[in-house]
Amino acid sequence: RHLLPLLCGLFVTQLCALAQAPATVVTFESAKVTAGNALPGSNAIVTVSFKIQPGYYLHSSRSNVARVTPTSLQVGAFGATRALPPSYSSPGQKTIPGKAVTAQVYEGSLTAQVVVVIAANATFPITLPGVIAYAPVNEKTHAAGRAEQVRFNITLPRNTNAPPATAKKK
């Protein structure tokens, strides 16, 4: 008789804890062409930005700490248009208790630059699928969570390099 209310209370507590847990620690913010031209047969550099929730950090893509999950970013292809491996923003430094080295980590945000090689026969807009994989680390306990992935898309509109229609001729 007394067991049922106790079990109901535990069930409600678990539901509340799950409802308050963050869905993912990293969220995709933006992807924009920052160099080059988004034209058929050309190359463009796309800067991809992510936000990392406060209270967490990610080990860098080239972590110097043994047995940690490095952050990795991959961008796929669309037809003959493809992305080259990314260049990551510079990581910060964090001293981790019990480790003999200072870890390279991303906190607050992460950006990466991706060179996109656009096929000569490309039709626009081009949408390239991407995924960032990481294991979030709790800043207070330095305990890594389960590996997570966030999927995103890079959409490239055609860059015509033509002057705007309202430009005045001299």
How would you describe the overall organization of this protein?
- The chain is mainly beta.
- Strands 1, 2, 5, 6 and 9 form a five-stranded antiparallel β-sheet that branches.
- The chain contains one helix and twelve strands, in the order H-E-E-E-E-E-E-E-E-E-E-E-E.
- A hairpin with a 6-residue loop joins strand 7 (92-95) and strand 8 (102-106).
- It has one helix at 3-20, and strands at 26-36, 43-52, 56-59, 72-75, 82-83, 87-88, 92-95, 102-106, 109-117, 126-134, 137-138, 148-156.
- Helices cover 11% and strands 42% of the residues.
List the main descriptive attributes of the protein structure presented here:
mainly beta; five-stranded antiparallel sheet; four-stranded antiparallel sheet; 11% helix; disordered N terminus; disordered C terminus
The gist of it:
This protein has 170 residues and is mainly beta. The chain has one helix at 3-20; strands spanning 26-36, 43-52, 56-59, 72-75, 82-83, 87-88, 92-95, 102-106, 109-117, 126-134, 137-138, 148-156.
